[in-house]
Amino acid sequence: MRRMIYFFVLIWTAVADVPTKMERTQILEFFTNLRESVDPPASNMLLMRYSSELEKAAQKTLANCSSIGLDRKTLPEDAFDFFRYFFHNGPTYVEMLTHFASNSQNYNYDENKCTRPCLSYKVMVLATSNAVGCAQSDCTRKGHSSKAYLTICLLKKNGGNAAKKPYKRGDSCSECPDGFACHHKQCLEKPSPVAHSPSPTTSPSTILSQSTNPPLPVTDISTKVSTPVTVTSLNSPSQCTSSSTEVFPVVIMNMLAFGLWLIV
């Protein structure tokens, strides 16, 4: 039993960590704010989403980072990687992304030139980029006392070319594809309409309105039932009085008939 537990622990420590739900939200908020605030404004900027597939790919890339480093051969096609080593407690994903986004000051949009390294920033604001996934792992080498954490995010370029200008200048969302809406100055794909079938919680009025046989009009009902029907208690005095009044004359007639028979 102990051997099984030790084996499980070894496997668990070899798997890279993935962002929590809150961290995923923070990553998306970071990209939304960054791409919303580009200068000059973009006319065709797509809104980013978080990708579980890219997250799994990031995990796979970090699988053996403590021995061979970053395995970039496992990177998916059309994905750009942002990664950085940290030699202290594991950093937040936003800290790592902020480091690369700060290179925006090195980029001149009009001339499409970088005064210093800025390729990572250009990919971050690439109009066609629409998905991101991240992971993090303890990549401390065996025999080294200092900790080494590697944080990586993969971004899907979606066919975009970062060598060119990353987006088109123009009024925000003015060149969004068909079927897209504008959200934070970015193109958001509208959800497809879904047909809903009647559910058990549908109100009775809704069910009646959908019936092939329409309900009887109220006027017809009032014609058939012209007076209200009241329910009287079985112990009601009116019932007893009514019964005795009907029975009493019959009893008198029977007594008179019996008396005449005796006389005859």
TrEMBL record:
Ranges of Low complexity composition bias in the record: 193-212
Disordered: annotated span: 193-213
Alphabetized InterPro entries for the sequence: CAP_dom, CAP_sf
Keywords: Signal
Domain SCP: 22-163
Signal peptide interval: 1-16
Record's protein name: SCP domain-containing protein
